[in-house]
Amino acid sequence: MQVSMASTQGVGNENEDTVHVSPTGVVVLDGLSAPKDLPMGCIHGTPWFVRQLGTCLINLIGDDTVTLRKALRTAITEVNDLHRDTCSLDREAVPASTVAIIRERDDVLDYLVLSDNVLVLDLGDEGIRTITDKRVEEVAGEEMHAALRGPTGTPEHAARVSTLVTVQRRLRNRPGGYWVAATDPAAADEAITGAVDISRVRQAALLTDGASRLVDSFGSLSWAQLLDLLSTEGPAALIARTREAELADPVGERWPRFKRSDDATAAYVRIGQPVPLSSGAQRLERGKHTGSSWGAGERSDGHTATIAPAPQDVAAALGLEPGDEVIRRTRAYRDQHGIIAHSTSWIPAEFAQTVPALLRNERLFGGTSLDVIARETGRHAVERTDETAARIATAEDAQLLELDPGTTEAILVLSARFLDSEGQPLEFGVDLGAPGRTRLETAEITW
What we know:
The chain is α+β, with helices and mostly antiparallel strands. The protein is built from twelve helices and 16 strands. The protein is elongated and about 80 Å long.
């Protein structure tokens, strides 16, 4: 799967949404806002809670033998263990979150939805399916109706929202009420779950209610139009259009709502599309944020590490003489379509003693080699030079990319040279892209 995502803060001090991505899964959480005038039994707050819960979930769903319900039950328990000694977890006033999860498992796409996040599945000729849990809308009807009366942003409106939340807390995670991820692991048993043959799914979207409101609250888009917007312009464009609509109705006169703008998070997923090539810079950024250099839908194998003589181009990049000893680390990145790239990291041999993990024939955990070097030595990459070239695959290229001997194919070659704050080389990386793999990069434009 290929995932693009965006998350922006609405009215409030912090964004209480979060999104987590792994090679085979996506987790989107929407923390339940707690009005400032109401008590809270946790000293950490909702943003902390959703970050911890999301981190636990994305790690747990990586094990295909663990059902999504079991993963959610375990994650709630693990987060409880993180703060049961400091917080009053037996109270109604504890952090809580909605949940939406998808996971590729063999030939199926598993899903779980708890509370009012929305999962949108494009099933091609079978149409579009939406999965959401609206039980929260079936309770506290009188208080909810009052809280939706505008104008938003006034003290009177805020008081009505606080009254609603007070009543909802008493109905949360109990029969006849509604269910969210909070401190009771049994909430996982109330989640909506299912599995779809992955060959039937073209694309998917996981949305918090702040990102789905153009369809289900404002009625200005259909689900098909929302997916078209995500596929052509991306999640940030969806949220930007949502903000435009909210600003056009700031007090909730046309579209009654609890707050002028809510935190909004959207994850758009292409299913079964070939993964594009990643640059060294992209892998470094992913390593910093997720602890893994993998892109969504990728895996790696064939990890090797050794001391080797530096070829001429490597020696020039690292400021050495040809034939000087360097660390050479190699691996192949793959997706369901086959090999994406063969990657080689050339690293000065001085790190063999200070960072022994670099010489192990296994995947590095906790990020890229540059992340490991930074943690162990304090030397961070602060300057990068990228180069992209195209050439007809050589015999050596063909062997590394598992092509038939004698194949005449054009490939992309991505190289990246990383320097520390003193201008000293830390690594020279070379990625050989398999034939037909594209290079994709997006960036925000600031005027």
